[in-house]
Every structure is written in C-alpha cells, then in structure tokens.
Amino acid sequence: MPYAISWMDEPGTAELRLELRGAHLDYMRENLARVLASGGLLDDPGEVGLGGLILLDIDSREEAENFVKADPFYTGGLYKNPVITRWRKAFYDGKAFI
Fold first, then answer.
1. Residues 6 or more apart from 83 whose CB is under 8 A from it?
2. pTM for the complete prediction?
3. β-strand partners of 49
4. Region of residue 94 (phi > 0: left; psi between -120 and 50: alpha; otherwise: beta)
5. Across-strand partners of 92?
6. How many CB atoms lie within 10 A of CB 78?
7. Nearest to 52 by CA among 6, 3, 88
8. What is the pLDDT of residues 40-89, one digit of tens each?
9. What confidence category does residue 1 fall into, taking pLDDT thresholds of 50, 70 and 90?
10. How far apart are CA 80 and CA 7, in angstroms?
C-alpha cells in the first residue's frame, strides 16, 4: 500500500536545503523502485523550496518511517516533523483506479 510523506522545511534552512540536495537526490535515485513520485514544495514564484512530498510504494508504515530516517534531508536537519499517511491511488498517471 502506498504512503504519502510530506513535510515543511524548518525555518531558516534555505542554505541547508541546497547543501543537502545532492545527497537527497542520490538517495531518491537509489530508491527509484519504491518511489511513485517525489518533488519539492515551492513558494508561489517557484524560486524557494519550502518542503517536499514523496509518494512511496511500500508495505508498511514502519518501512515509510525507516525511509524517512535515512533521507539526508531528515538526517541533516532540514525537516523534523514529517507527516506519513497511507495513500489510496484513485487517479494516477492519466488512469482511474476506482
């Protein structure tokens, strides 16, 4: 069952986001088999990262928690309070599933 992981960056961490970005992207690439979708949450002009969203295809909440705990954005202190929620795929990639 897929899980949605979302977070908002800690205040004042714009430079930290840039420092950790390469390691985070490497981590995401290493886990592409489990990542349905992923991307940053941006300010309205699309210039500043504010947080992120990951849709992860895994079997349990524990796996989602472990995924977060290994993410360089998390271990580096960019975000501290991720929201992990089970997600039902209703419409995805131009297809209806319900």
1. 4, 5, 6, 7
2. 0.89
3. 42
4. left
5. 95
6. 24
7. 6
8. 999 999 998 899 999 999 999 999 999 999 999 999 999 989 999 999 98
9. confident
10. 8
User: Which one, of 34, 13, 21, lies nearest residue 80 by Cα?
Assistant: 13
Report the C-alpha gap between 23 and 43 in whole angstroms. Answer: 22
Domain regions of the chain by residue span:
2-89
Helix, strand, coil percent values for the chain (each to nearest 5): 30, 35, 35
Name the one residue in this structure whose structure tokens are 């992923």.
Answer: 38
Superfamily of domain 2-89: Dimeric alpha+beta barrel (3.30.70.1060)
Match 């990639």 to its residue by tokens: 93
